[in-house]
Amino acid sequence: MTNFELVTAADVRLMQGLSQRVTATRPDLVNADASFGELAWNWGKGHAADGASRPRRLWFSGGDLVAWSWAQLPHQVRRSDGSVKDVTGAYLAYQVHPDHAGLIDEVIDWYDGVAAGIERTVSPSAADELALKRWAAHGYETDPASLGDTGSWTQLNERDLTDVDQPVLPEGFRFRTADEAGPRAAVQAHLDAWAPTTYTHESYRHVRRTAPYRGDLHILVEAPDKTMAASTIMWLDEANRTAEFEPVGTHPDYRRLGLARAMLLHGMQLARAAGATHMTVACLGAPGHPQARGLYYGVGFRELTRDAPLIKTRMAA
């Protein structure tokens, strides 16, 4: 296996399997971009546009995947408003099973090899003390962009599903599923909520290829004028009986109407009916980003863990 193979749908399923095993024993050690749902979403939405800039490495023990690394190298990003952004640095998503924690040095060495000579960032779990020490030993430091009120770090939030309030939508609005509304409506809902974005109909086609995607757990809110005013996808991890919201978005013309709150409550009821007993959702955690955090806290979520963004500059290479 070479160091420059690209991530496939089959690889994502293996990575999700590792996420499930870590979640079962040490959920606080699951990195923010290595959760069951985040892996499917990130691979699906980005595969068509920038998959060729994302090499990976897998580590196995006894036939089981025990560590993986997935680098994002410099590339151009084309967004829905026609703009083009040059990504000049590298980013690493990774996960190591706690029973094989010593592999972290191999993960770091691989990353330093494929991204040599350019700025490198990574976001391990803040609860992973060994990993933080090893990243520091390899020259990685706290990313200045993560500091202060507008920092870029992510927190993972959780709640159980034993007591979920009834959702209330404004008059004339109704819940739909992607199965009911169809691909065009599902994609447009995301484009409207997240513009400018790299998301396309091709992105959604790849999202639907991921093993856990279910159109009946892809929820939309339809406005009286038939606009899809809000949407979210839920990713059901049947092994751990947990589900994850990713992404969650509302059309700017329909914000502050309580749509996202109602959609989350409705989604949690559907997740519970599908067998989940536990729910997670991620958001920016710095004080200067209160909107999403306030929404999630308002429906019963609380912080489980957070990531610790690190950086290694060209000068430290």
**Helical content (DSSP H or I, runs of 4+):** 25-40%
Strand content: 25-35%
* SSE arrangement, N to C: EHHEEEEEHEHEEEHHHEEEHEHEE
Largest sheet: 7 strands, mixed
Number-wise, the strands total: 16
Uncertain stretches of 5 or more adjacent residues: none
Number of helices: 9
The largest sheet has its strands arranged as 1-2-3-6-7-16-8
Report the radius of gyration as a whole number of Å.
19 Å
Mean pLDDT: 94
Give the termini distance in whole angstroms: 25 Å
Shape: globular
What structural category characterises the helix and strand content? alpha+beta
Please characterize this protein's 3D structure.
- Helix 1 runs antiparallel to helix 2 and helix 2 (36-50) packs across helix 7.
- The protein starts with a strand and ends in a 5-residue tail after the last strand.
- The chain has nine helices and 16 strands.
- The protein is α+β, with helices and mostly antiparallel strands and 317 residues long.
